[in-house]
Amino acid sequence: xxxxxxxxxxxxxxxxxxxxxxxxxxxxxxxxxxxxxxxxxxxxxxxxxxxxxxxxxxxxxxxxxxxxxxxxxxxxxxxxxxxxxxxxxxxxxxxxxxxxxxxxxxxxxxxxxxxxxxxxxxxxxxxxxxxxxxxxxxxxxxxxxxxxxxxxxxxxxxxxxxxxxxxxxxxxxxxxxxxxxxxxxxxxxxxxxxxxxxxxxxxxxxxxxxxxxxxxxxxxxxxxxxxxxxxxxxxxxxxxxxxxxxxxxxxxxxxxxxxxxxxxxxxxxxxxxxxxxxxxxxxxxxxxxxxxxxxxxxxxxxxxxxxxxxxxxxxxxxxxxxxxxxxxxxxxxxxxxxxxxxxxxxxxxxxxxxxxxxxxxxxxxxxxxxxxxxxxxxxxxxxxxxxxxxxxxxxxxxxxxxxxxxxxxxxxxxxxxxxxxxxxxxxxxxxxxxxxxxxxxxxxxxxxxxxxxxxxxxxxxxxxxxxxxxxxxxxxxxxxxxxxxxxxxxxxxxxxxxxxxxxxxxxxxxxxxxxxxxxxxxxxxxxxxxxxxxxxxxxxxxxxxxxxxxxxxxxxxxxxxx
Length: 562
Hints:
By secondary structure, this protein is mainly beta. Helices cover 6% and strands 34% of the residues. The chain contains 5 helices and 35 strands. It has helices at residues 62-70, 188-196, 298-301, 427-431, 468-473; strands spanning 3-7, 10-15, 36-43, 51-59, 81-86, 99-105, 172-176, 183-186, 204-208, 226-228, 238-240, 255-261, 273-277, 303-308, 310-311, 314-315, 327-334, 341-345, 349-350, 370-376, 379-385, 396-402, 405-407, 410-411, 414-420, 436-440, 446-448, 452-461, 484-490, 496-498, 511-513, 516-522, 530-540, 545-548, 553-558.
């Protein structure tokens, strides 16, 4: 499972736009309870050179992300990406084209509020909680770090950099061609800074980039005096005229209006989210271990083995070999009855060492052991290659031990011994392009919304033609697909609930082990009460493209236990 979503816990639209009378600005209005977020710029509607802007504030539960990381539900920093996802809302209003939006880190605490009016901006925050164009809350104005009054929000700017920790003040942009695109921005640096406590989590400001916000030649609107909200008992009424944003390099073209769904929307999949994505694939080659071949590349000749340390039904780190300890793997042939490892260490090489050595002495331990590493809690891996003897061994034994070796024949501490049945690559195996038959062997009709389900995939060549002998004496072959991805769609309307994730983070990639391909799915990602379909795509290296498989597998997510 390489995806997890965190829904916004506060959002609001703030504006300096005119109300319908084109006289009074809605700078004191709040839309914290609205189901829409809105970003726009209007130039010259009220008068020649007039400026009207709308911006969005949105905040996410970063403490939940930190808690999940501590629990091991998401990977450590550097192994996961975080994306801001905002979803476009269709409307009868016009849609701007060919523009850029900016995303900034908010530098001040703010209140969501309970206003709804995004038409005439009549839901003011005076006497209520909520942020607006002038104020962050019912007790605080927007200010910079020096206490200077601001309007339109307070944001981190600049580029402070530390070589010790990431203190750079990052900002991000996204360009929109037709105006209907969803927002998808990689904000990983922000999330990591929030988790680390480098900056406080006050959320994200969303606005048109400066060159697309309306031109304004002055920092004050001379036509009207605007009461800065709120007028709380703790604050003196403050009349301000700088309700517009000074922007001499701005646009004299209007960009109206980019509408997106707020967290209060009725649409389950359209809520603002931070989406964590990571590559959760585990390629355990125990069931598809190949001898090295001159027909294959170094990567294809490399096999990865996994050790799963399960203690009392759960994965647990081996004492002394947690994240930083070393673990060694060696290979042996079998005894006469082929039941236990015996004989001498087999000559192996780790990935990246080049050709398998052949003339080294027995005491050159480098070539008889490979160093494995910690993958995640209770899971360790090691990668190696092995050249077959003149008469290839039918069974191999992998022995996992400490990094402390007494001599070439003795290990200090052994943890586990596994069994491998190696295969041999040949030209026919490498060049074929099979058509597959597939099935999910443990698929159920229904799942609870609060469970994480594992789906086990059975795959074989559709043209496999067993004889009577193979039917009686062999297990049906299960082919492990190295590059495979899934996506989930809603049956009712074909909505793509979880798209294929085959990019750099590969968050919908399938793992495999000795039993075949599999993946885990958190049902909280799906709206309960609906049926869903699973589709798979396999990568075809000969065509350098992904090929979607024909089969569809269906299930339903329920909101109750059964």
